[in-house]
Amino acid sequence: MTFRRLSRPRSALAGVAVATLVAGAALASTASAQPPAQHSGGSAATVLPLGPAGLPETRESRPLQPGVTLTTIVRGQAGPGSTWTVEVAIPSSSPDPDAPATALSDRPTADAAAARLRAAGLESRVEDVPTPKLADAGGGSLGYRVRLGSFATKAEADALRTKVIAAGLNGSSIYTGWDGEPDDVSGSTGPWHVQVLTIDPKKFRGTLDASYGLDLEARETTSTLATLTGATAAVNAGFFVLDPKAGAPGDPAGVAVYDGRLVSEPTAGRPALVIGDNARGTAVERFRWRGELRGAGKPLPLDGLNRVPGLIRNCGGTADDLPTSKPLHDVTCTDADELIAFDSAYGVSTPSGPGAEVIVDRRDVVSAIRPTTRGGAIPEGGRTVQATGNLVAPLLASAKIGKRLEIKASLTDERGRPVQLSSRTTIVNGGPELVRDGKLRATPAADGMAPVGNPSSYYGWVHKRNPRTIAGVDAQGRTVLITADGRNVDSLGLGIAEAAAVAKSFGLRNAINLDGGGSTTMVANGTVLNTPSDATGERPVGDALVITPTR
């Protein structure tokens, strides 16, 4: 990635159009003589499909550069239906003493937890949790949760939580506005804060790209990546390794292609966002890949690219990975026997550890071999291959000093057909899919966000409202990037069902969920526009989508 000089910021008020929308009617604000702001995917009369009808909604739109428009939307307001409560971590009914407590359980287990609280003088309630029906998951009841109290402030809920802990249980102070139940059940009326970037390729003269910063094994904030690339605007992009125990922090946890260069392998057919640098041809596609070494003897299949051997974040790797070769979100699968190829995108040096490593120069000629250990510098223009476990011997047999060792890696589509990449192509990972061919199609089960037998994981990640980053393309070929703040009382966030509905409301023909939670960030003209949810502020991420002006 070539870093570009930071452009000069525009006035924060230049070209602002304001609209206030209530119950589907557009009312021009007296603060502006300009016509109402146009919705990215339709008319100004369209409102966000969040909360009950009739909620107030305001929109402000302004151009950031030719072909790029920023729209800020605020919908609804806090109502009496949202309060602070304590949600209990329900002890497992399993005979295993190490079985963890969970947010949801079956009814008898939830009733048993409520009885323990009652015996300690604490009145609780057991609640059924209905969840929206998605394309391949949800619908019906997720299970039962146990809650106590209903308060105006978090401090009051925290005080009750200390009593729950004293009773031998654990729990969290939760704002019920973050619940993902249908609005007629939850009673939520907002507010929601949503930011939208629309890139119109017919007018756009800049570059739409992605940047991972200086190297893959380091994280930078979205605002830092915007500064390094001279971006007018930027949003966070794909999932990445966060915990060093899961790999190299910053490494993409799924497919990554930058300027036509495949640097991270796909997660077993999960969806990804494809963009061209001229903002044309934006798409949501599912990928697989093929990789192999060609040296002495028969070709050897690669397990991965530019990641720590043995650790497969979000799973979806090869058949011998444990516990699964299918996508499994926020889980690190393992494989003791792997071949991993590295190039300069990874960093200055490769991961260290037992095994073997072969160094190949820019001519695909073996220049050095580390037969008993891994880790060392990556030569300029060259690559290395690391082997662990029972693949050490095959690698050493295939590599000979002064002989060629070719490293081949390519993407395939869902049908196994080769995908041609050009230097103008960028791909970032994501999931689940949200919209396909203009229809709601949220696929958390296919994409590893609905683990079998673990409704609490689905409850926290898919069902409940969280900060979200969404990307897609509308029928006019415009790329639309959306962030929705969450995890605070000033913006509730979106469940996956709501994220899909919001994407469709903007007229998106195809859309995908990108990394969210504390990663969700939008930057324009050097300023972070949203409110990142991490207590420490803006989170360093793996990569970001960046919009730069005409060079």
How would you characterize the overall build of this protein?
By secondary structure, the chain is mainly β. It has seven helices and 38 strands. Strands 2-1-3-4-9-33-32-34-30-31 form a ten-stranded antiparallel sheet, with helices on one face. It has a five-stranded antiparallel sheet with strand order 10-38-12-35-36, with helices on one face. Strands 14-13-29-15-16 form a five-stranded antiparallel sheet, with no helix packed on it. Strand 15 (271-276) and strand 16 form a beta hairpin. The model is unreliable at 1-18 and 20-45 (pLDDT under 50).
What do the pLDDT scores average to? 91
Uncertain residue segments: 1-18, 20-45
List the total number of helices: 7
State the share of residues found in helices, binned by percent.
10-25%
Rg (CA only): 25 Å
What structural category characterises the helix and strand content? mainly beta
The global form is: globular
**Strand runs, count:** 38
Q: Which strand order spans the largest sheet, edge to edge or round the barrel?
A: 2-1-3-4-9-33-32-34-30-31
Proportion of strand residues: 25-35%
Measured between the Cα atoms of the first and last residue, the distance is: 15 Å
Describe the main β-sheet briefly.
10 strands, antiparallel
